[in-house]
Amino acid sequence: MMLKHVERLARFMAVLGGIVLTLLVILTCLSVLGRGLNTFGHSAFLTSLSESAAHALIASGVGPITGDFELVEAGIAFAIFAFLPYAQLHHAHATVDIFAASFPHWFNRFLIVFWEFVLSAIILLLTWRLFAGMQGKMSNGEITFLLQFPVWWAYAASFVAAVTASIVAIYCAIARILDVVTGGSHLPHSEGAHH
C-alpha cells in the first residue's frame, strides 16, 4: 500500500521534471534559432542579396530569448532533483559491478542495503543544504542578472523536488532492510535492481 503512494509521488515528480526539461529544450531551440536569424540578418551575405530583407529581419526584433541561460540553469537543477526519486525507487542509478559477481549473495545484499543508506544520507544532506541555500538567497535578496527574478525561486523549486527525493530515499532504505529481514519485496522490481 505504501509502495503505491511512494511510486505515485516519484512518478509525478519524474513527469513534472520531464515537462520542465521538454520546455527547456524548446526554449533553447527557439533561442538558438533567434540568435541564428539575428546573426543572419546582420550578415554581409543577406545584405548583399537584399538590404530590405536584412533590415526587415533586424527590425522584427528576432534574437535570442532574454535570460535563456538563467531559465535553463534553474530548470535543469529542478529536473535533476525531480528525476532523483524515480531513479532511487527503481534502483536505476549507475553502478559498477565488476567484483559483485564474485561476492557471496549475502554480501551483495548487505552492499545494496549499505549503499541505499549512504545514498539516502547524501540525498538528505543535499536537501538540507538546498534549504540553507534557499534561506540565504531569500535573506540577501539576490536576483538574476537579466530576468531579475529572485534566485531563491530556483532553490525553492529544487528543494521541493529534493524533499520528494528524501521521502523516497527514506522509504527505499527502510524497504531494503525489510526485504532482508522478511525476505519479501517492498520495492518495485526493475532491470537495474539486484534481487
TrEMBL record:
<keyword id="KW-0997">Cell inner membrane</keyword>
<feature type="transmembrane region" description="Helical">
    <location>
        <begin position="151"/>
        <end position="174"/>
    </location>
</feature>
<protein>
    <recommendedName>
        <fullName>TRAP transporter small permease protein</fullName>
    </recommendedName>
</protein>
<keyword id="KW-0813">Transport</keyword>
<comment type="similarity">
    <text>Belongs to the TRAP transporter small permease family.</text>
</comment>
<keyword id="KW-0472">Membrane</keyword>
<dbReference type="GO" id="GO:0022857">
    <property type="term" value="F:transmembrane transporter activity"/>
</dbReference>
<feature type="transmembrane region" description="Helical">
    <location>
        <begin position="12"/>
        <end position="33"/>
    </location>
</feature>
<feature type="transmembrane region" description="Helical">
    <location>
        <begin position="71"/>
        <end position="89"/>
    </location>
</feature>
<feature type="transmembrane region" description="Helical">
    <location>
        <begin position="110"/>
        <end position="131"/>
    </location>
</feature>
<dbReference type="Pfam" id="PF04290">
    <property type="entry name" value="DctQ"/>
</dbReference>
<comment type="function">
    <text>Part of the tripartite ATP-independent periplasmic (TRAP) transport system.</text>
</comment>
<comment type="subunit">
    <text>The complex comprises the extracytoplasmic solute receptor protein and the two transmembrane proteins.</text>
</comment>
<dbReference type="GO" id="GO:0005886">
    <property type="term" value="C:plasma membrane"/>
</dbReference>
<keyword id="KW-1133">Transmembrane helix</keyword>
<keyword id="KW-0812">Transmembrane</keyword>
<dbReference type="InterPro" id="IPR055348">
    <property type="entry name" value="DctQ"/>
</dbReference>
<keyword id="KW-1003">Cell membrane</keyword>
<feature type="domain" description="Tripartite ATP-independent periplasmic transporters DctQ component">
    <location>
        <begin position="64"/>
        <end position="176"/>
    </location>
</feature>
